[in-house]
Design a protein that fits this description.
Length: 413
Amino acid sequence: MKFDTIIIGGGLSGMTCAAMLAKNGQKVALVTAGQSCLHFNSGSIELLGFQEGKVVERPFEGIAQLNEAHPYRKIKTEKLAVYAEEARTLLAEAGLKMKGNAEKNHFRLSPIGTTIPAWLTLEDLITLETTAELNGKKLLLANVEGFLDWPTAYLSDSLSAMGANVKTASFTTEALAFARKSPTEMRAINIAKYLDKAQNIADAAREINRLGKGFDLVLLPAVLGLAHDNVDLLRKAVETPVECVATMPPSVSGIRIENKLRGFLGQHGAVVLNSDTVNNGFFEGDKLTAITTEKLEETRLEANQYVLGTGSFLSGGLVSDYQTITEPALHLEVEAHESRTQWTSEYLFDEQPYMAFGVKTTDDFHPMKDGKAVTNLYAIGSVLSGNSGIKQATGTGVSMLTAIAVAHNILNQ
């Protein structure tokens, strides 16, 4: 089986690169092990949120000060804003309504009410320009009765600390009460399936109207539909302004991003090999000539170009034992401290060195193997070294911008 480009890894970076190539006419195959880390995503894309423990207001200014080893620094400065706009356009073409811009961060709310700088956020989720924006506002946290993955006590305390007057309440409907008969049904994904139906949204709106009188804003868990974004439908039926806040994983917002991007790939003819992993790569000189996968066994998949976007430790793109850290798919060179004692910091909230470990690449994102660059292979996203994605709030931005940079490298050959 021969393709123009084969992408290994079906997370945000892999899907972004595949989408860019497919919409530009390439024959693309995407090998994905299954559910991606987007199931843990808040519904936001972060460019650069923190630097040396301080909030970054203007991401591009902060990026210019990052260490030379950071993946962003391998992208030409004048291209960063261009690629950021292309990322926004791609999400819109996939059917995702996002708010925000790359010039200045806004704040999103975590499930416990922490304010985190972000670049783009789904339109149904609440965002703040400043942390003082809610001062003096009367807020109702309206939770679905029996739903435990939206910690309203923590959220209420955080919002109260911002100066808001907060009250919590719960509601249910006939459909949601039916779901509650089984405790396993009261998870975000299952609730969202019930709220995909217009009638069930109308019933929920009636209950929210009953509770929401006299409030400036009603905040709901982000569970309003999995296949459809039903927030606009609910807002038209509720008298008080409504915004949503991300829940604990699994995240309906993150799954919606994944589903929309998957749908976009299908529309543009990309071949997606689901629930499969690469188990071997065949090299000749400085090129990768073919790969095999667990499911296809002896069938060799061949392409002119290959892209590795398998992620970091969470998704299995990097693995460790007591002595070493390795990249398991193609056995590429990894940048990491040799001594295990240097992998972590003693204090939990310090920057953890292992989070910046990853595949070693050239400035053009070509990975290294046996001391030389593989010239028709690229690495993108969280598998790259030099990025502490959680500490810096850069993970999703690095995924999208390095994927777009590599897509341009491939298309310009």
